[in-house]
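---------- Forwarded message ----------

FYI, see the Cation:proton antiporter record below. Original note from H. follows.
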Amino acid sequence: MIYEWIVSVLLLLGGILILIGSIGLVKMPDFFMRLHGPTKATTLGMACLLIAAMIYFSATHASYSFKEILISIFLLITAPISGYVLIKSAIHHKLDMRKDTQGVDKIEKD
């Protein structure tokens, strides 16, 4: 069936994106750069996994999957907001950053 191929590709793509986000979390040099891994790549990876789950359960159970839609909405709303709050907290506490991190001049003036 064609939906099995689509689900397989989405699962592989989601797994690769989550792996890239996790590696970025570990390998980036400072907190401000490290936050991009989970908020960007991992969110896209989870979206691929949830879309794959929606397609699979819609095709096998002949009904729509509202749980995955609600999880997707919750994830896509909360991930950017939590990243923003973490960055604002780090700026407020004057967390050290690398010299080549963009926006250093603006933060130092405040």
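H. also flagged this: The two ends are 58 Å apart (CA to CA).
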